[in-house]
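User: What would this chain look like folded?
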Amino acid sequence: MTTYYDVPADLLIGSLSTELQSFEQITAPDWAEYAKTGTHRERPPTQDDWWFIRSAAVLRKVGMKGPIGTNHMAQLFGGPKDRGVKPTRAAAGSRNVARTILQQLTEAGLITSKWNPANTVNFGKILTPEGHALLDKVAHSVRGAAEEKYPGLSKY
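Assistant: Here's the prediction, encoded as structure tokens.
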């Protein structure tokens, strides 16, 4: 069986974003039309379905790097900030976007919090079995397109 580790991110995220549109818990808030995705950006995203694409990317990142929190997720979606004549520096992405998407994925039952044994410290978000199954199902469905686009993948 193909897992989400076996297929390239661009093919997986594209198909996963269309799957996430069927979840009623995952919707773009009213402010998403005007919000930038980080201080390093000059304008808001131009794609109509950018919220679902970002949700798919966040779900994949939770699967690959989990347990992971909002701050680390925002840093992963950051970029270089243009500071004029001064050298660029790294800037984190929007924490509100990351936090809202993580909350929506939790409501949808795709991710959950990982706590320490004493239930006092939250280590971050991890995939639930439903989220793992969804990622693997989408990865298996794009396996043919991945092998066609990247012929070296057929070895795996």
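Residues 9-155 form a domain with the Arc Repressor Mutant, subunit A fold (CATH 1.10.10.10). If you want, I can go into more detail on any region.
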